[in-house]
């Protein structure tokens, strides 16, 4: 049974309306998105460095490691973080830089893919290069996330390490997920016109 037409807004996607954003967020959408992007990026790297510090402290051999009376006895760590753990985050960061260095106005110009035709010919070469760079940037982001999941699976889950080591892999995946969310937030924020720019165009 459907609701009467007068009891809902036909332009809405969901029957239940979502609460509106606070006024300070609506009036400063661009700034809020940029700050949110920076916070997500910092949080991703902070989680990774936290796991890196734990790995470094665990693998540091104490001076009295060979002393049989040492309590608790020092045990060599089963695994430690290496360059393989760094690589996905570095790829994702490079992808974020590439994506957000592209001039959005070139991608939004009239013509688009229809004027560009196939990759072989026609269209604006600057727009074609911008789209290619955008693809490369998102491929780096996706590769970073896929690489972190691969490192988690192969190095920390399949290897059946003692409890606690899987945190290194989960930190790597979280880092790449936050970098990807940060990239999307920054992309949307940069595509949004600020109130100041809007007033200038009037």
From TrEMBL:
A GO-annotated cellular component: membrane
Any one Pfam family match given in the protein's UniProt record, by short name: UPF0220
Localization per Swiss-Prot or TrEMBL: Membrane
Keywords tagged on the record: Membrane, Transmembrane, Transmembrane helix
InterPro entries in UniProt: UPF0220 (IPR007919)
Transmembrane residue ranges: 32-53, 132-158, 170-188
Protein name, as recorded: UPF0220-domain-containing protein
Organism: Meira miltonrushii
